[in-house]
Amino acid sequence: MFFKLENLYSGYGHVPVICGIDLEVVRGEVAIILGRNGVGKTTLMKTIIGLLPRTSGEIIFNDLPISDLPVYSRACLGLAYVPQGRGIFPDLTVEENLRMGEGINIAAKTRPYTEVFTYFPRLKERLRQKGGTLSGGEQQMLALGRALIGDPRLLLLDEPSEGIQPNIVGEIGAVLAHLNEEKNLTILLVEQNIEYALSISRSCHMMNKGKIVARVAHDELHNVETIKKYLAI
Amino acid sequence: MSTVFSVSYIFADSAAFLLLSALGLIIILGMMGITNMAHGEFMMLGAYTTAIATHAGLPFGLSVLSSMLTMGAFGIIIEMLVIRRFYGNLLQSLVVTWGLSLVISQGMLIILGPSIPSLPMPMGGFSVGGKVYAAYRVFLPVISILVVAAMGLLLFKTRFGMKARATMQNPEIAQVMGVNTKAMYMFTFGLGSALTGLAGALYAPTTVLGPLYGANFLAPAFVTVVVSGGTNIIVGALMAAGILGLVDGIFNYWFGAVIGRLALLTATMFVIRFFPSGLSRWLANRRSV
Ligand SMILES: Nc1ncnc2c1ncn2[C@@H]1O[C@H](COP(=O)(O)OP(=O)(O)OP(=O)(O)O)[C@@H](O)[C@H]1O
Ligand SMILES: [Mg+2]
Questions:
Q1: How far is Cα B94 from Cα A101, in angstroms, rounded to an integer?
Q2: What's the CATH fold of domain B2-282?
Q3: pTM, to two decimals
Q4: Which residues of chain B neighbour A90 with C-beta distances below 8 Å?
Q5: What ligand 1 atom has the least distance to the C-alpha of A43?
Protein backbone atom coordinates (compact mmCIF):
# COMPACT_ATOMS: atom_id res chain seq x y z
CA MET A 1 0.00 0.00 0.00
CA PHE A 2 1.66 3.25 -1.10
CA PHE A 3 -0.67 5.86 0.37
CA LYS A 4 -4.15 5.57 1.77
CA LEU A 5 -6.55 7.54 3.94
CA GLU A 6 -8.99 5.35 5.86
CA ASN A 7 -12.16 6.92 7.20
CA LEU A 8 -10.18 9.99 8.26
CA TYR A 9 -11.68 12.58 10.59
CA SER A 10 -10.11 15.78 11.86
CA GLY A 11 -10.92 19.37 12.73
CA TYR A 12 -10.25 22.21 15.10
CA GLY A 13 -11.24 21.65 18.70
CA HIS A 14 -14.79 20.37 18.72
CA VAL A 15 -15.49 21.52 15.17
CA PRO A 16 -15.17 18.62 12.72
CA VAL A 17 -13.91 19.67 9.29
CA ILE A 18 -12.77 16.41 7.68
CA CYS A 19 -15.64 13.96 8.02
CA GLY A 20 -14.63 10.48 6.97
CA ILE A 21 -12.34 10.60 3.94
CA ASP A 22 -11.30 7.42 2.16
CA LEU A 23 -8.73 7.89 -0.55
CA GLU A 24 -6.01 5.84 -2.13
CA VAL A 25 -3.08 7.21 -4.10
CA VAL A 26 -1.04 4.73 -6.12
CA ARG A 27 2.64 5.19 -6.83
CA GLY A 28 3.31 7.35 -9.85
CA GLU A 29 -0.14 8.95 -9.83
CA VAL A 30 -1.13 12.60 -9.79
CA ALA A 31 -4.14 12.67 -7.49
CA ILE A 32 -6.15 15.85 -7.43
CA ILE A 33 -8.79 16.91 -4.96
CA LEU A 34 -11.02 19.71 -6.17
CA GLY A 35 -13.14 21.72 -3.83
CA ARG A 36 -14.21 25.29 -3.37
CA ASN A 37 -13.23 27.66 -0.54
CA GLY A 38 -13.61 26.32 2.96
CA VAL A 39 -14.47 22.67 2.22
CA GLY A 40 -11.44 21.53 4.22
CA LYS A 41 -8.66 21.08 1.65
CA THR A 42 -5.97 22.72 3.76
CA THR A 43 -7.26 20.97 6.86
CA LEU A 44 -6.88 17.64 5.07
CA MET A 45 -3.31 18.43 3.98
CA LYS A 46 -2.34 19.54 7.49
CA THR A 47 -3.78 16.34 8.90
CA ILE A 48 -1.80 14.24 6.42
CA ILE A 49 1.51 15.93 7.25
CA GLY A 50 0.64 15.97 10.96
CA LEU A 51 0.38 19.67 11.76
CA LEU A 52 -3.16 18.87 12.84
CA PRO A 53 -3.90 15.67 14.80
CA ARG A 54 -6.49 13.33 13.31
CA THR A 55 -9.59 12.70 15.38
CA SER A 56 -10.00 9.15 14.11
CA GLY A 57 -9.20 7.02 11.11
CA GLU A 58 -5.79 6.14 9.74
CA ILE A 59 -3.16 7.39 7.30
CA ILE A 60 -1.12 4.66 5.65
CA PHE A 61 2.17 5.50 3.93
CA ASN A 62 4.39 2.74 2.57
CA ASP A 63 2.40 0.11 4.46
CA LEU A 64 3.03 2.05 7.69
CA PRO A 65 0.31 3.69 9.80
CA ILE A 66 1.74 7.18 10.29
CA SER A 67 -1.01 9.11 12.05
CA ASP A 68 0.70 8.92 15.44
CA LEU A 69 4.09 10.05 14.14
CA PRO A 70 5.23 13.65 14.67
CA VAL A 71 5.47 15.95 11.66
CA TYR A 72 9.25 15.73 11.34
CA SER A 73 9.19 11.91 11.23
CA ARG A 74 6.64 11.97 8.42
CA ALA A 75 8.92 14.37 6.55
CA CYS A 76 11.91 12.11 7.16
CA LEU A 77 9.92 9.20 5.69
CA GLY A 78 9.54 11.13 2.44
CA LEU A 79 6.37 13.21 2.66
CA ALA A 80 7.02 16.71 1.31
CA TYR A 81 4.40 19.37 1.97
CA VAL A 82 4.14 22.66 0.10
CA PRO A 83 1.67 24.67 2.16
CA GLN A 84 -0.89 27.18 0.97
CA GLY A 85 0.87 30.51 1.41
CA ARG A 86 4.19 28.77 0.66
CA GLY A 87 5.83 28.82 4.09
CA ILE A 88 9.11 30.38 2.99
CA PHE A 89 11.52 31.23 5.81
CA PRO A 90 11.63 35.01 5.30
CA ASP A 91 15.04 35.71 6.85
CA LEU A 92 16.83 32.71 5.37
CA THR A 93 18.39 33.18 1.96
CA VAL A 94 17.02 31.35 -1.08
CA GLU A 95 19.96 28.98 -0.84
CA GLU A 96 19.31 28.27 2.84
CA ASN A 97 15.61 27.75 2.16
CA LEU A 98 16.53 25.15 -0.45
CA ARG A 99 19.01 23.47 1.87
CA MET A 100 16.29 23.13 4.50
CA GLY A 101 14.64 20.73 2.04
CA GLU A 102 17.48 18.26 2.64
CA GLY A 103 15.72 17.30 5.87
CA ILE A 104 12.96 15.62 3.86
CA ASN A 105 13.25 11.92 3.00
CA ILE A 106 16.43 11.00 4.82
CA ALA A 107 16.72 7.84 2.70
CA ALA A 108 17.22 9.89 -0.48
CA LYS A 109 20.49 9.31 -2.28
CA THR A 110 20.53 12.52 -4.28
CA ARG A 111 19.69 16.15 -3.61
CA PRO A 112 18.64 17.30 -7.09
CA TYR A 113 19.92 20.91 -7.07
CA THR A 114 20.82 20.85 -10.76
CA GLU A 115 17.32 19.76 -11.76
CA VAL A 116 15.69 22.36 -9.52
CA PHE A 117 17.84 25.11 -11.06
CA THR A 118 16.96 23.86 -14.54
CA TYR A 119 13.25 24.02 -13.72
CA PHE A 120 13.53 27.37 -11.99
CA PRO A 121 16.58 29.31 -13.24
CA ARG A 122 15.32 32.38 -11.37
CA LEU A 123 16.12 30.71 -8.08
CA LYS A 124 19.71 30.26 -9.11
CA GLU A 125 20.01 33.96 -9.90
CA ARG A 126 18.74 34.85 -6.44
CA LEU A 127 20.58 32.43 -4.16
CA ARG A 128 21.83 35.14 -1.78
CA GLN A 129 18.54 37.01 -1.61
CA LYS A 130 16.37 36.71 1.51
CA GLY A 131 13.36 34.44 0.94
CA GLY A 132 10.98 37.09 2.22
CA THR A 133 11.99 39.53 -0.50
CA LEU A 134 10.97 37.24 -3.39
CA SER A 135 7.80 37.90 -5.38
CA GLY A 136 4.81 35.64 -4.82
CA GLY A 137 5.51 33.58 -7.91
CA GLU A 138 9.18 33.23 -7.02
CA GLN A 139 8.23 32.15 -3.52
CA GLN A 140 5.99 29.46 -4.97
CA MET A 141 8.92 28.25 -7.10
CA LEU A 142 11.14 28.27 -4.04
CA ALA A 143 8.58 26.36 -1.97
CA LEU A 144 8.29 23.73 -4.68
CA GLY A 145 12.05 23.67 -5.29
CA ARG A 146 12.68 23.20 -1.58
CA ALA A 147 10.30 20.24 -1.47
CA LEU A 148 11.95 18.74 -4.56
CA ILE A 149 15.41 18.98 -2.96
CA GLY A 150 13.98 16.51 -0.46
CA ASP A 151 13.60 13.99 -3.31
CA PRO A 152 10.19 13.12 -1.84
CA ARG A 153 8.26 9.91 -2.30
CA LEU A 154 4.98 11.79 -2.13
CA LEU A 155 4.58 15.48 -2.86
CA LEU A 156 1.68 17.24 -1.13
CA LEU A 157 0.66 20.51 -2.76
CA ASP A 158 -1.90 22.96 -1.39
CA GLU A 159 -3.25 25.29 -4.09
CA PRO A 160 0.01 26.03 -5.90
CA SER A 161 -1.87 28.24 -8.35
CA GLU A 162 -3.27 30.61 -5.74
CA GLY A 163 -2.49 34.28 -6.24
CA ILE A 164 0.04 33.77 -8.99
CA GLN A 165 0.05 35.16 -12.51
CA PRO A 166 -1.06 32.65 -15.20
CA ASN A 167 2.28 32.19 -16.98
CA ILE A 168 4.00 31.11 -13.74
CA VAL A 169 1.07 28.84 -12.92
CA GLY A 170 1.65 27.23 -16.33
CA GLU A 171 5.37 27.00 -15.71
CA ILE A 172 4.87 25.23 -12.39
CA GLY A 173 2.22 22.95 -13.93
CA ALA A 174 4.64 21.94 -16.66
CA VAL A 175 7.32 21.13 -14.11
CA LEU A 176 4.91 18.98 -12.13
CA ALA A 177 3.78 17.12 -15.25
CA HIS A 178 7.42 16.56 -16.24
CA LEU A 179 8.36 15.29 -12.78
CA ASN A 180 5.47 12.89 -12.79
CA GLU A 181 6.13 11.55 -16.30
CA GLU A 182 9.92 11.44 -16.25
CA LYS A 183 10.74 10.86 -12.60
CA ASN A 184 7.60 8.96 -11.69
CA LEU A 185 6.96 11.39 -8.82
CA THR A 186 3.69 10.79 -6.97
CA ILE A 187 1.69 13.94 -6.29
CA LEU A 188 -1.36 14.71 -4.18
CA LEU A 189 -2.67 18.16 -4.98
CA VAL A 190 -5.65 20.09 -3.63
CA GLU A 191 -7.08 22.85 -5.83
CA GLN A 192 -10.09 24.95 -6.55
CA ASN A 193 -8.86 26.05 -9.98
CA ILE A 194 -10.53 23.59 -12.36
CA GLU A 195 -8.57 24.52 -15.51
CA TYR A 196 -5.33 24.06 -13.67
CA ALA A 197 -6.38 20.68 -12.30
CA LEU A 198 -7.43 19.62 -15.79
CA SER A 199 -4.03 20.56 -17.21
CA ILE A 200 -2.16 18.07 -15.06
CA SER A 201 -4.43 15.15 -14.36
CA ARG A 202 -6.78 12.73 -16.00
CA SER A 203 -9.21 12.61 -13.12
CA CYS A 204 -10.15 14.44 -9.98
CA HIS A 205 -11.71 13.70 -6.64
CA MET A 206 -14.46 16.10 -5.77
CA MET A 207 -14.54 17.33 -2.20
CA ASN A 208 -17.45 18.96 -0.43
CA LYS A 209 -18.02 19.67 3.26
CA GLY A 210 -15.14 17.52 4.43
CA LYS A 211 -16.00 14.49 2.29
CA ILE A 212 -14.94 13.10 -1.06
CA VAL A 213 -18.23 13.09 -2.96
CA ALA A 214 -17.15 11.70 -6.32
CA ARG A 215 -14.33 10.75 -8.61
CA VAL A 216 -14.69 12.40 -11.96
CA ALA A 217 -12.82 11.44 -15.11
CA HIS A 218 -11.10 13.93 -17.39
CA ASP A 219 -13.74 14.02 -20.16
CA GLU A 220 -16.51 14.52 -17.65
CA LEU A 221 -14.59 17.39 -16.12
CA HIS A 222 -15.17 19.42 -19.25
CA ASN A 223 -18.84 19.17 -18.56
CA VAL A 224 -19.57 22.26 -16.51
CA GLU A 225 -22.84 20.86 -15.26
CA THR A 226 -21.15 17.81 -13.73
CA ILE A 227 -18.67 19.95 -11.90
CA LYS A 228 -21.33 22.27 -10.63
CA LYS A 229 -23.29 19.31 -9.39
CA TYR A 230 -20.42 17.86 -7.37
CA LEU A 231 -18.98 21.05 -6.05
CA ALA A 232 -22.43 22.32 -5.12
CA ILE A 233 -21.71 25.70 -6.63
CA MET B 1 46.96 58.86 26.43
CA SER B 2 46.21 57.46 29.84
CA THR B 3 42.74 59.06 29.71
CA VAL B 4 42.07 57.37 26.38
CA PHE B 5 43.22 54.09 27.84
CA SER B 6 41.15 54.58 30.97
CA VAL B 7 37.97 55.32 29.08
CA SER B 8 38.58 52.43 26.66
CA TYR B 9 39.21 50.17 29.63
CA ILE B 10 35.93 51.11 31.27
CA PHE B 11 34.13 50.89 27.94
CA ALA B 12 35.50 47.44 27.14
CA ASP B 13 34.80 46.22 30.65
CA SER B 14 31.26 47.54 30.60
CA ALA B 15 30.46 46.34 27.09
CA ALA B 16 31.82 42.87 27.88
CA PHE B 17 29.77 42.80 31.07
CA LEU B 18 26.59 43.74 29.20
CA LEU B 19 27.29 41.33 26.36
CA LEU B 20 28.15 38.30 28.47
CA SER B 21 25.39 38.83 30.98
CA ALA B 22 22.76 39.23 28.24
CA LEU B 23 23.79 36.59 25.72
CA GLY B 24 22.06 33.59 27.27
CA LEU B 25 18.93 35.62 27.91
CA ILE B 26 18.90 36.90 24.32
CA ILE B 27 19.25 33.43 22.84
CA ILE B 28 16.47 31.96 24.95
CA LEU B 29 14.19 34.91 24.28
CA GLY B 30 15.02 35.13 20.56
CA MET B 31 14.70 31.42 19.86
CA MET B 32 11.83 30.46 22.10
CA GLY B 33 10.06 33.62 23.13
CA ILE B 34 10.69 32.73 26.77
CA THR B 35 11.78 35.55 29.06
CA ASN B 36 13.84 33.69 31.59
CA MET B 37 13.20 35.44 34.91
CA ALA B 38 15.56 32.94 36.53
CA HIS B 39 18.43 34.28 34.41
CA GLY B 40 20.18 35.80 37.44
CA GLU B 41 19.83 32.56 39.39
CA PHE B 42 21.32 30.60 36.49
CA MET B 43 24.30 32.99 36.65
CA MET B 44 24.52 32.44 40.39
CA LEU B 45 24.59 28.67 39.89
CA GLY B 46 27.34 29.11 37.30
CA ALA B 47 29.36 31.22 39.72
CA TYR B 48 28.79 28.79 42.59
CA THR B 49 29.87 25.82 40.48
CA THR B 50 33.08 27.60 39.51
CA ALA B 51 33.84 28.72 43.06
CA ILE B 52 33.24 25.26 44.49
CA ALA B 53 35.26 23.56 41.76
CA THR B 54 38.14 26.03 42.12
CA HIS B 55 38.22 25.68 45.91
CA ALA B 56 38.23 21.91 45.40
CA GLY B 57 41.49 22.32 43.50
CA LEU B 58 40.49 22.57 39.85
CA PRO B 59 42.32 25.32 37.88
CA PHE B 60 40.08 28.37 37.38
CA GLY B 61 39.83 27.92 33.60
CA LEU B 62 38.66 24.34 33.93
CA SER B 63 36.21 25.32 36.64
CA VAL B 64 34.67 27.88 34.31
CA LEU B 65 34.37 25.25 31.60
CA SER B 66 32.86 22.75 34.00
CA SER B 67 30.23 25.22 35.18
CA MET B 68 29.34 25.95 31.56
CA LEU B 69 28.75 22.24 30.96
CA THR B 70 26.92 21.80 34.25
CA MET B 71 24.61 24.70 33.51
CA GLY B 72 24.02 23.41 29.97
CA ALA B 73 22.88 20.07 31.38
CA PHE B 74 20.88 21.84 34.10
CA GLY B 75 19.16 23.95 31.44
CA ILE B 76 18.20 20.87 29.43
CA ILE B 77 16.70 19.23 32.51
CA ILE B 78 14.76 22.38 33.43
CA GLU B 79 13.50 22.62 29.85
CA MET B 80 12.23 19.04 29.92
CA LEU B 81 10.64 19.32 33.36
CA VAL B 82 9.21 22.82 33.25
CA ILE B 83 9.81 25.18 30.35
CA ARG B 84 8.43 23.05 27.49
CA ARG B 85 4.95 23.22 28.98
CA PHE B 86 4.83 26.99 28.62
CA TYR B 87 5.96 27.79 25.06
CA GLY B 88 3.80 30.38 23.40
CA ASN B 89 2.35 31.56 26.68
CA LEU B 90 4.15 34.76 27.64
CA LEU B 91 2.54 35.39 31.03
CA GLN B 92 2.65 31.81 32.25
CA SER B 93 6.28 31.47 31.25
CA LEU B 94 7.13 34.70 33.08
CA VAL B 95 5.46 33.51 36.27
CA VAL B 96 6.90 30.03 36.07
CA THR B 97 10.50 31.18 35.52
CA TRP B 98 10.07 33.76 38.27
CA GLY B 99 8.94 30.94 40.56
CA LEU B 100 11.96 28.96 39.44
CA SER B 101 14.21 31.88 40.39
CA LEU B 102 12.75 31.96 43.89
CA VAL B 103 13.14 28.22 44.32
CA ILE B 104 16.77 28.32 43.19
CA SER B 105 17.87 31.32 45.26
CA GLN B 106 15.98 30.28 48.41
CA GLY B 107 17.14 26.69 47.93
CA MET B 108 20.75 27.84 47.76
CA LEU B 109 20.24 29.99 50.85
CA ILE B 110 19.01 26.94 52.75
CA ILE B 111 21.71 24.59 51.44
CA LEU B 112 24.82 26.77 51.45
CA GLY B 113 23.86 29.77 53.57
CA PRO B 114 23.98 33.50 52.81
CA SER B 115 27.43 33.37 51.19
CA ILE B 116 30.17 31.03 50.07
CA PRO B 117 33.95 31.69 50.03
CA SER B 118 34.77 34.08 47.20
CA LEU B 119 37.41 33.67 44.54
CA PRO B 120 40.61 35.71 44.13
CA MET B 121 40.90 37.76 40.96
CA PRO B 122 43.09 35.76 38.57
CA MET B 123 45.90 37.22 36.44
CA GLY B 124 47.10 40.16 38.62
CA GLY B 125 47.44 43.72 37.35
CA PHE B 126 49.42 46.11 35.17
CA SER B 127 49.85 49.86 35.09
CA VAL B 128 49.37 52.49 32.41
CA GLY B 129 50.22 56.16 33.08
CA GLY B 130 50.62 55.53 36.80
CA LYS B 131 47.24 53.86 37.22
CA VAL B 132 46.88 50.16 38.01
CA TYR B 133 44.46 48.02 36.05
CA ALA B 134 43.31 44.42 36.51
CA ALA B 135 44.51 42.18 33.69
CA TYR B 136 41.41 40.00 34.12
CA ARG B 137 39.21 43.00 33.20
CA VAL B 138 41.01 43.20 29.85
CA PHE B 139 40.79 39.46 29.40
CA LEU B 140 36.97 39.44 29.81
CA PRO B 141 36.27 41.63 26.73
CA VAL B 142 38.52 39.35 24.69
CA ILE B 143 36.59 36.32 25.91
CA SER B 144 33.27 38.03 25.22
CA ILE B 145 34.30 38.71 21.62
CA LEU B 146 35.40 35.09 21.22
CA VAL B 147 32.13 33.81 22.66
CA VAL B 148 30.08 36.04 20.37
CA ALA B 149 32.18 35.01 17.37
CA ALA B 150 31.64 31.34 18.24
CA MET B 151 27.90 31.93 18.55
CA GLY B 152 27.89 33.75 15.21
CA LEU B 153 29.68 30.85 13.54
CA LEU B 154 27.33 28.34 15.12
CA LEU B 155 24.20 30.24 14.08
CA PHE B 156 25.23 31.38 10.61
CA LYS B 157 27.78 28.88 9.36
CA THR B 158 26.50 25.50 10.49
CA ARG B 159 23.56 23.34 9.51
CA PHE B 160 22.42 23.32 13.12
CA GLY B 161 22.39 27.14 13.13
CA MET B 162 20.37 27.23 9.94
CA LYS B 163 17.80 24.86 11.42
CA ALA B 164 17.72 26.92 14.60
CA ARG B 165 17.04 30.13 12.67
CA ALA B 166 14.40 28.37 10.56
CA THR B 167 12.71 27.14 13.74
CA MET B 168 12.74 30.66 15.13
CA GLN B 169 11.10 32.03 11.98
CA ASN B 170 8.49 29.34 11.40
CA PRO B 171 8.47 26.32 13.70
CA GLU B 172 5.68 24.52 11.81
CA ILE B 173 7.43 24.65 8.47
CA ALA B 174 10.73 23.74 10.13
CA GLN B 175 9.05 20.51 11.26
CA VAL B 176 7.77 19.97 7.74
CA MET B 177 11.45 20.15 6.71
CA GLY B 178 12.27 17.30 9.08
CA VAL B 179 13.46 19.39 12.03
CA ASN B 180 12.67 17.96 15.44
CA THR B 181 11.75 21.33 16.89
CA LYS B 182 11.18 19.89 20.37
CA ALA B 183 14.77 18.70 20.50
CA MET B 184 15.85 21.99 18.95
CA TYR B 185 14.19 23.99 21.75
CA MET B 186 15.62 21.70 24.37
CA PHE B 187 19.12 22.06 23.00
CA THR B 188 18.81 25.81 22.53
CA PHE B 189 17.60 26.29 26.07
CA GLY B 190 20.60 24.25 27.18
CA LEU B 191 22.88 26.43 25.07
CA GLY B 192 21.42 29.63 26.52
CA SER B 193 21.79 28.22 30.02
CA ALA B 194 25.39 27.21 29.33
CA LEU B 195 26.21 30.76 28.18
CA THR B 196 24.46 32.18 31.23
CA GLY B 197 26.46 29.81 33.43
CA LEU B 198 29.64 30.88 31.64
CA ALA B 199 28.92 34.54 32.31
CA GLY B 200 28.17 33.81 35.95
CA ALA B 201 31.38 31.83 36.24
CA LEU B 202 33.55 34.47 34.56
CA TYR B 203 32.34 37.23 36.89
CA ALA B 204 32.55 35.05 40.00
CA PRO B 205 35.98 36.44 41.02
CA THR B 206 34.81 40.05 40.74
CA THR B 207 32.38 40.15 43.66
CA VAL B 208 31.02 38.38 46.74
CA LEU B 209 29.16 35.13 46.19
CA GLY B 210 25.72 34.75 47.70
CA PRO B 211 22.32 33.51 46.56
CA LEU B 212 21.51 36.98 45.22
CA TYR B 213 24.70 37.18 43.16
CA GLY B 214 22.62 37.23 39.96
CA ALA B 215 20.74 40.38 40.91
CA ASN B 216 23.77 42.50 39.91
CA PHE B 217 23.42 41.28 36.36
CA LEU B 218 19.70 41.32 35.89
CA ALA B 219 19.09 44.98 35.08
CA PRO B 220 22.06 45.33 32.70
CA ALA B 221 21.13 42.04 31.00
CA PHE B 222 17.50 43.04 30.44
CA VAL B 223 18.52 46.52 29.30
CA THR B 224 20.81 44.99 26.69
CA VAL B 225 18.09 42.62 25.52
CA VAL B 226 15.55 45.41 25.14
CA VAL B 227 17.96 47.63 23.22
CA SER B 228 19.18 44.84 20.95
CA GLY B 229 15.81 43.84 19.47
CA GLY B 230 15.14 40.45 18.03
CA THR B 231 16.03 40.30 14.35
CA ASN B 232 19.63 39.22 14.40
CA ILE B 233 20.63 37.96 17.80
CA ILE B 234 24.36 38.44 17.28
CA VAL B 235 24.35 41.85 15.59
CA GLY B 236 21.70 43.13 18.01
CA ALA B 237 23.65 42.05 21.08
CA LEU B 238 26.89 43.54 19.75
CA MET B 239 25.28 46.88 18.88
CA ALA B 240 23.45 47.13 22.19
CA ALA B 241 26.46 46.22 24.30
CA GLY B 242 28.68 48.53 22.23
CA ILE B 243 26.45 51.60 22.47
CA LEU B 244 25.46 51.11 26.10
CA GLY B 245 29.04 50.26 27.04
CA LEU B 246 30.22 53.49 25.43
CA VAL B 247 27.65 55.56 27.31
CA ASP B 248 28.53 53.80 30.54
CA GLY B 249 32.27 54.11 29.88
CA ILE B 250 32.19 57.85 29.22
CA PHE B 251 29.87 58.80 32.06
CA ASN B 252 31.47 56.37 34.47
CA TYR B 253 34.95 57.84 33.87
CA TRP B 254 34.02 61.48 34.33
CA PHE B 255 31.09 61.32 36.73
CA GLY B 256 31.43 58.02 38.58
CA ALA B 257 29.63 54.68 38.65
CA VAL B 258 26.22 55.93 39.78
CA ILE B 259 25.94 58.55 37.05
CA GLY B 260 27.27 55.95 34.61
CA ARG B 261 24.42 53.61 35.49
CA LEU B 262 21.90 56.46 35.25
CA ALA B 263 23.24 57.39 31.83
CA LEU B 264 22.88 53.76 30.81
CA LEU B 265 19.22 53.70 31.76
CA THR B 266 18.61 57.08 30.11
CA ALA B 267 20.22 55.80 26.92
CA THR B 268 17.97 52.77 27.09
CA MET B 269 14.86 54.90 27.43
CA PHE B 270 16.08 56.95 24.48
CA VAL B 271 16.45 53.82 22.37
CA ILE B 272 13.04 52.49 23.41
CA ARG B 273 11.46 55.83 22.56
CA PHE B 274 13.01 56.21 19.13
CA PHE B 275 13.65 52.60 18.06
CA PRO B 276 10.80 50.79 19.82
CA SER B 277 11.52 47.41 18.23
CA GLY B 278 15.23 47.52 19.01
CA LEU B 279 18.38 48.42 17.13
CA SER B 280 18.74 45.22 15.12
CA ARG B 281 15.20 45.48 13.71
CA TRP B 282 15.81 49.12 12.86
CA LEU B 283 18.99 48.12 11.04
CA ALA B 284 17.24 45.25 9.22
CA ASN B 285 14.43 47.56 8.06
CA ARG B 286 16.93 50.10 6.81
CA ARG B 287 18.79 47.45 4.86
CA SER B 288 15.74 46.07 3.14
CA VAL B 289 14.48 49.50 2.04
N1 LIG C 1 -7.29 27.29 12.74
C2 LIG C 1 -8.60 27.10 12.57
N3 LIG C 1 -9.46 27.09 13.62
C4 LIG C 1 -10.77 26.88 13.46
N5 LIG C 1 -11.36 26.67 12.27
C6 LIG C 1 -10.57 26.67 11.18
C7 LIG C 1 -9.15 26.89 11.27
N8 LIG C 1 -8.64 26.85 10.02
C9 LIG C 1 -9.67 26.62 9.20
N10 LIG C 1 -10.84 26.50 9.87
C11 LIG C 1 -12.16 26.24 9.30
O12 LIG C 1 -12.16 24.97 8.70
C13 LIG C 1 -12.87 24.97 7.47
C14 LIG C 1 -12.00 24.45 6.36
O15 LIG C 1 -10.88 25.31 6.18
P16 LIG C 1 -9.72 25.00 5.17
O17 LIG C 1 -8.68 26.02 5.35
O18 LIG C 1 -9.33 23.59 5.30
O19 LIG C 1 -10.45 25.21 3.77
P20 LIG C 1 -9.85 25.15 2.30
O21 LIG C 1 -10.65 24.14 1.56
O22 LIG C 1 -8.40 24.95 2.33
O23 LIG C 1 -10.22 26.59 1.76
P24 LIG C 1 -9.40 27.53 0.73
O25 LIG C 1 -9.74 27.08 -0.63
O26 LIG C 1 -9.97 28.88 1.01
O27 LIG C 1 -7.96 27.42 1.08
C28 LIG C 1 -13.34 26.39 7.26
O29 LIG C 1 -14.68 26.47 7.65
C30 LIG C 1 -12.48 27.21 8.19
O31 LIG C 1 -13.16 28.33 8.67
MG1 LIG D 1 -6.83 26.04 1.82
A1: 35
A2: ABC transporter involved in vitamin B12 uptake, BtuC (1.10.3470)
A3: 0.88
A4: 169
A5: 18
